[in-house]
Amino acid sequence: MDLSSINPVLLLASLIAASTPILLAAIGELVVERAGVLNLGVEGMMITGAICGFAIAVNTGSPVAGFVMGALGGAALSLLFAALTQIALANHVASGLALTLFGLGLSALLGQGYVGIKPPPTPKLDIPLLSDIPVLGPVLFSHDLMVYLALALVAAVWGMLKYTRAGLILRAVGENHDAAHALGYKVVRVRVLAIAFGGACAGLGGAYLSLVRVPQWTEGMTAGVGWIALALVVFASWKAGRVLLGAWLFGGVSVLQLNLQAAGVAVPVEYLSMSPYLVTILVLVIMSADKSRAPGSLGRIFHASQ
Q: What are phi and psi of 138, to 5 degrees?
């Protein structure tokens, strides 16, 4: 066992990159749930975004095109969920689970011809001067553009929910859709837009997995990250700041357990592999001790005729 081989600066830098997929998926799901919709199809949208982004990036040679297609693929699948729950008035839980199963099957079918292929590299965005700062430079200012986009989305969602009229309407729809409808707000429209945004974010997270984190296509490569994103939103009490902390925690433990395996720590690999999930859930349960209430209309079906 040689713990001296673990570089703390590289560990912190890897933490931020490793947290990006779950952060993108979770911040999108937070918006969806604040609109009163419970979408359990995050895993399916992520894996669909992963294969769509990977396929386009490989065929065009452009990782940017891959990320765009990953977002579109996740959004397209989310609109299927929107049609089921907001138009056909199907149960949110059953529709979300069906979406995950459909996404897993569809991605396996689409990805058959891409196993073993390497995608084009995603360049890092080394910020001049800032990236040269000791310790802080490699940790904060030497990542690819998607890392900064994810952080910007967290800040934008936090500001939108707290300070804007659009955020007020979204929260009103999520708290009491009947009252929001009585006030003249287009409940279905608001929810469909929120669902599409959540799907695009999940698709981006999946594309980041297949293009950057694990630059290859492997069937089922999301490996439960979508479910962790769902749990993260709930245990973070539907607050954007806590979602960011939870994603960093998951990313940090994931990177740490890989480093510990490489250092030869005398702990069974299976225990180390499951540690990110266990530690994240445990800490988020503790964080949620303030008993923050879920949006009042979460998971409830809206009948416009009422």
A: -65, -30
